[in-house]
Amino acid sequence: MNRWFAFALAGVFLSLGGCGGGGGGGGGSGTVTPPTIQNTQPLIVDAGPANYVNILFTSVTVCAPGASTNCQTIDHIQVDTGSTGLRIMGSVLSPALALPQAIDANGNPLYNCVQFVDGYSWGSVRTADVRFADERASSMPIQVIGDTGNPAIPTSCSSSGPPENTVATFGANGILGLGLFQYDCGSACVTSALPGTYYGCPSSGCRPVAVSLAQQLPNPVSLFATDNNGVIIDLPAVPAIGAATVSGTLIFGIGTQANNSLGNATVFKVDPNTGNLRTVFNNQAYDNSYVDAGSTAIFFGTGFYGGCSGAALGLYCPASTQNLSASLRGANGTSGAISFSVANADLLFANNPAFNVFNNLGAPNSDATSFDWGLPFFLGRRVYTALEGRTAGGSTGPFVAF
Amino acid sequence: MRLVALALAMSVVPLPAVAALGGDEPTVQADQAQIRGTLRVSRTARFSVHEIQAPSGTAVREYVSPAGKVFGVAWQGPAMPDLRQVLGEHFDRYVELVRSRRTGRGPVSIEEPGLVVQSSGHMRAFVGKAYVPGLLPQGVAAEEIK
Question: ipTM score here?
Answer without folding.
Answer: 0.87
